[in-house]
Design goal:
Elements lengths: L5 H19 L17 E9 L23 E2 L4 E2 L3 E9 L2 E8 L18 H13 L10 E5 L17 H20 L2 E11 L22 E8 L6 E8 L19 H14 L3 E5 L14 H20 L2 E2 L5 E12 L2 H8 L11 E3 L2 E3 L10 E4 L2 E13 L2 E5 L3 E2 L1 H9 L6 E5 L8 E2 L25
Parallel strand pairs: 5-6, 9-10, 17-19, 18-20
Antiparallel strand pairs: 1-4, 1-7, 2-3, 4-5, 7-8, 7-11, 8-9, 12-16, 13-14, 15-16, 16-17
Length: 465
């Protein structure tokens, strides 16, 4: 959401690698020396909690001030009730535990401004999850918890860009996320973690109608899967997958009465739940410049997209192998950078914390307000100079590594991180996790002005970190 220079992208990559290197040095719960060749045994579980709006909310992602509404897409003929959820996947071993939580939102800030919103940002929610798990005997901190958004453009707006943030709803989302994580722990069962990486190359559309992907640049094709299975029966105790693509097809404002939708992640996880049992958790992977094929803004397009994702996850599960390393742990490293996108920083600077429902600023031709925290370590202002702070969280499960993108990194950013990792079976990006800071890329690799503008009509520059 704030413009970042090439050197700042390099700083992000460096910070991510520092966090990963620290994580790879943690003590394995399987003991020192070579890992046992038998499958490692964990406790794993997954759960969901509803974040259906109980009070009217604005649609996120498309159209300013569309709504407000409490309705979600439903079609009796299709048998679809497209409810909004937050889902959690948890893995534990001994007193160690890690958690992945995903909410059906366009985005969610690490921290918010004002007493009505401040208790319900991602960081505070991660801390509440850690506190709840600590009471159950785990050695855990917020470093062991990743919270991300699916980035559905049919979800409620909780970042102020497409409509004001309702404190009651943000509280509902935060509390549901804590509830899902703790319920996942209650459901945890003895499990092997089977893993593989699928390929979604044909799901990333280049230069088609509705896409923002320029010619000549690589894409992230990887779809990593963790499948928690009962060691004796093979039954599914939980499933976690990262899909590197925007769920941005559905446009709820196009319906006679505006409606929310979880887009293809909701369709895919329902299909996977029915196929495999257990609870499927679908999170984002690389998001920047990764668009799905299609141009129909209605749910008819969501169905084949969801079917594609579910089918590829199912194929990936068929080639999965079990982890033999029992390591678990998390690491968090702070990062900060100078912001030079005055349009967006100005919106944050003028947010009225006394009345968070006020529309106080001009927002790309509309009215909105952005309540991201203006307190340290998230924000520092010296005259006209603004420094934005966030963090990178890294989680290790066996010899798998997951790191957070606190926004929508382009594929080459995550590729640089993955290629630099030593000692891991695979490195996986979790998109839009920990914060909501828009797109980021290496500026020198792209032309963004004049006749050679490679971004065309996209909003990459407007929402550039």
């Amino acid at each position: 959401m704030f413009a970042r220079s090439s050197s700042s992208v390099g700083q992000f990559v460096g910070i991510a690698l520092i966090s990963i290197c620290a994580l790879l040095g943690i003590t394995s719960t399987a003991g020192a020396g070579r890992p046992a060749m038998q499958p490692a045994i964990f406790e794993a579980g997954a759960a969901s909690a509803s974040i259906q709006p109980e009070t009217p909310q604005y649609l996120g992602g498309y159209g300013y001030l569309t709504g407000p509404t409490t309705q979600v897409f439903a079609d009796a003929n299709l048998g679809i009730e497209d409810d909004l959820q937050t889902r959690a996947f948890l893995v534990a071993k001994g007193d160690r535990v890690v958690v992945f939580v995903v909410a059906d939102l366009t985005g969610w800030f690490a921290a918010y401004e004002g007493s009505a919103l401040a208790p319900y940002g991602i960081d505070r929610t991660r801390e509440k999850i850690a506190e709840g798990l600590s009471q159950r005997g785990y050695d855990v901190s917020r470093e062991d918890v990743i919270i991300s958004s699916t980035h559905t453009h049919g979800g409620p707006a909780v970042t102020g860009i497409w409509g004001p943030v309702d404190p009651a709803y943000l509280r509902q989302v935060s509390e549901a996320s804590v509830s899902a994580a703790l319920e996942a722990e209650s459901r945890a069962r003895k499990s092997e973690i089977w893993t593989a990486v699928g390929n979604v190359r044909s799901f990333v559309w280049q230069n088609g109608q509705g896409t923002n992907h320029p010619d000549g640049f690589g894409v992230d094709e990887n779809l990593p899967v963790m499948w928690a299975r009962d060691p004796d029966t093979g039954a599914t105790n939980g499933l976690y997958a990262n899909v590197p693509n925007h769920p941005d097809q559905f446009q709820g404002r196009r319906y006679p009465s505006p409606v929310f939708s979880s887009d293809w992640p909701g369709y895919a996880r329902r299909a996977l739940d029915e196929l495999n049992g257990g609870t499927s958790v679908i999170a984002a992977g690389t998001l920047g410049r990764q668009e799905p094929p299609g141009s129909n803004p209605f749910y008819e397009e969501v169905i084949p997209q969801g079917q594609y994702v579910a089918n590829e996850i199912q194929r990936t599960m068929a080639k999965a192998v079990p982890l033999t390393d029992g390591s678990l742990g998390g690491s968090e490293t702070p990062i900060s950078f100078l912001a030079d996108n005055a349009a967006l920083t100005g919106l944050i600077d003028t947010f009225n914390a006394e009345n968070p429902l006020d529309l106080v600023s001009n927002c790309f031709g509309a009215q909105c307000s952005i309540p991201r925290s203006k307190s340290a370590p998230y924000w520092s202002k010296d005259g006209r100079t603004i420094e934005v702070g966030t963090s990178v969280t890294t989680i290790r499960v066996g010899d798998l590594v997951y790191w957070t993108n606190p926004g929508e990194a382009f594929a080459e950013v995550n590729e640089a991180i993955e290629e630099s990792i030593q000692g891991a079976r695979h490195g996986n990006a979790v998109g839009l996790a920990g914060d909501f800071l828009g797109y980021y890329w290496v500026r020198g690799q792209y032309t963004i002005t004049g006749t050679g503008n490679q971004f065309g009509s996209s909003n990459f520059v407007s929402y550039n970190t």
